[in-house]
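The records we work with from here on pair a chain with its fold. Taken together, the tokens spell out the fold as the letters spell out the chain. The record below shows the convention in full.
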Amino acid sequence: MMKTLMELQGVWKIYRMGGTDVPALAGIDLTIKENEFTAITGPSGCGKSTMLNMIGCLDMPTRGKILLEGKDVSELKSNDLARIRGKKIGFIFQTFNLYPTLTALENIQLPMKIHEFSEKKIEDTSTKLLVTVGLAERGAHFPAQLSGGQQQRVAVARALSTSPSILLADEPTGNLDTKSGGEVMDVFKRLNSEGLTIVMITHDPRIAGYAERIVKMLDGKIVGET
């Protein structure tokens, strides 16, 4: 039986807008198991990104609990949450967020330098990750010299550099053409087959189809799962 990696228990996120309480999430219960590939789908404004922020410990619930590897992180201080994000969670965004003045290899190495990995570990891991995402010959290139799909694959490698327990992707193919998006998703599928847990937000049913589990949201609630 697969081990539970993350659990949201009765999670509400309520924003105060113009004197009115607006629930972005309304009592979410969600369990993420190790090695799962989960897509979260739904229309704009349904709460997908808020849910991903909760899973990624970027935001905390108004009510409810978030458990990571059995530990309640809902009440942790911001510096403790930052440490958890740095070591346990990898993030991929629609806009790549690469540093333009760093090469592909240097972008991948940056999180490891921040967390003070040894120079040998940084060199070995970053070189291996370039191969993993199919960019072994592009390590010395700057982001502006890479296609959008290649930039996103560098971002994937960077997110994996600290060996996170879970990879979170927010519309990872949103800025890519069909071919480049497919190449990124092929990398995701291979990583998942090797044991990586992935949670992905997407509005595209075709991209959601790469996942083994699809969670459907509407109006801040989970309304279905396939």
